[in-house]
Design a protein that fits this description.
The chain is an alpha/beta fold. It has helices at residues 16-33, 43-52, 69-78, 97-105, 118-201, 208-239, 252-266, 287-303, 362-372, 426-438, 449-459, 475-484, 502-511, 523-533; strands at residues 8-12, 36-40, 57-61, 87-91, 108-113, 248-251, 273-278, 282-285, 310-318, 321-328, 376-381, 388-395, 418-422, 442-446, 463-467, 492-497, 515-518. It is a multi-pass membrane protein.
Amino acid sequence: MPKIEKPKILVVNDDANSLFALTSLLTQWAEQESYEVLAARSGQEALRQVLMHDFAVILLDVNMPGMDGFETAEAIHQRARSADIPIIFITAFLADELDRLKAYQRGAVDFLFTPVIPQILYAKISVFVALAMKNEELKKQARQLSLRTTELTAANQKLTREIEERQSAERQNHAKDEFLAMLGHELRNPLSAISSAASLIGLPGVSAEGVTRAKKIIQRQSQHLGRIVDDLLDLSRAMSGKILLNRAPLDLAALVAASLETYRATGRSADYQLVQDLDQGWIDGDATRLEQITSNLIDNALKYTPPGGRIEVRTWTENDDVVLSVRDTGVGIAADLLPHVFDVFVQGSSTLDRSQGGLGIGLSLVRRLADLHGGAVTAESKGPGGGSTFTLRLPRIEHQVAPAPLPAETGGEQGMPSVLLIEDNDDGREMMTMMLSCYGYDVRSAADGHEGVAAALRSRPDVALVDIGLPGIDGYEVARRLRADPATAGIRLIALTGYGLADDLRRVMEAGFDRHLVKPVDIDQLMEVIGACVPMPVKQ
């Protein structure tokens, strides 16, 4: 414990002899009682001492010229810090009751008459010195206790935060574990179907109808795998802020209507009462991303609504917002889950018999895409069995007239365009070559970057499909070399890559490519891009 400062005693007397006698008497006991003695010759000097020090007791002469003892005592006790200092008046005159009353009213605790009896003085000052020391000790203990309390409070708050962070991390890890398990399940299902269909095609005695059905299964399940990969990549891009919106004025009602028509055409909504009420509302948005939002909200309603249930899709304008609402009569959302439905990897019921599966990232992607558009999405539910409603709000703009599309390019060479495919994956290269040949293209192929540049110099193709991740030299370097050589500078270059971030598109264009396609590439999309680069000849 820190050392306690010695208490101080102040003696105030205008008479030098009396002052010397009292201070000398008190000094005899100072070491024994562990206190210090200070002196003052007037009331003003006493006040200056009180401003500089704390005192255990003040011995104050009553009869002093100028400011007498009563006035001095009153001034001392008017100051908050010195208001509680005990004052013992010393006088040579016998004080009557009125004088005593006056003294007590000004803060006196006692009277001493001169000549002072040493034993009485010692007894009185000993009490006040001991009291001052005890008070100072209690103050220090109180300060230490306060400091300790502050330290414990801070430690408790830190421990509470660590517990909350650990619980949050455990919840996230649990959610990720469940997600990985679900991802494995969702990937194995289409892979199993593809593997079985591929094996069926090779079996002896399989009918032509069986081969056709197997091919359709492979195509459908491959598209399903592509959608899973796209969702994962889109969520990653959205969480890292790497999605760039291709904004344009559009009518949200028209976009939603087109999405609903796709659901009806494919039969995905055949077992439900799908009701639409769509009022026109113009927004500035990315059509592709808004279709993702719409399809994810509708998919969510289909997933959690039993067959025969009702799904209502509405759009309307409200003040400065265009609103999309998807309401269902499905299983509803529990109160404890409702605040977390837009969190990553969160799902409702994940029973094995749920027919449509899912990764639990659709709604999280919806929220992030809505944020990128300057909008917001909310969820409401009356609880289990009460259905749910998801509401999207986007900033409204004034009605826009869409620009007329540019006329398509015509013309081209009279022969079939030639295509060079540079791809290091043997199976992928073989399948792509076969498909392009089936569409009438003259196709040559190369398995690495150096071979691809050499093949381009030999054959001078109209179009080169170049994989970015090539051995030897990568696709970027292939494009740069082809553009640098006058003999191959005019070849139309299309990048085929598994990298689809905005930065990847920038690097592709800076290397000299004309177009950028992300694997897996839909054959219809590929034909459209090749046709745009080198139009097919018009048959006479």
